[in-house]
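USER: Note each token:
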Amino acid sequence: MNETAGSGDVHGAAAGATPEVPEAREVSDGERRSAAALEASGIGYAITRHGPVRSLAEAAAARGVEPADIVKTIVVRRGDDDFLFVLVPGDRTISWPRLRALLGVSRLSMPDAATARDVTGYERGTITPFGSLTAWPVVADSRVPDRAVSIGAGAHGVAATVDGADLVRALDATVADVTEPEG
């Protein structure tokens, strides 16, 4: 695991992390956009890079966090060309009735992978509100603000650890109980 810090310390980030030694690796456009947006937000963050993972448990182990501390960014469609991001703890899933009630709508859906990429600029598994092609509204589950969380950072195997309250503030997110336990 390699880590790089930006804009100050992050409460809960891995202690004693060694700054990343520059490697001969290509940085994707998505990773660049995400990093620039994170830096511009002014919040503290630490970037973690790891190899391929096949599950939430593997991703959590690679990032040195608990599965619940990984925050998935889910793209949700409200209507034609109208989307939003929902920040969901790793061990939870969207509660569609709660999210519909919060938004005052009777219908929501998840776009296919190609549409999600077209409206965010990110592939599934790399999506983050930071650096998205459009600054869609953000809803954060009520479990996000009270701890350090690990969120995707624009490329596979790249994550940003941030303080959840800072994340919510930087994204001007609406905070609500919009998830339920997985399974």
Summary: The chain is about 25% helix and 30% strand.
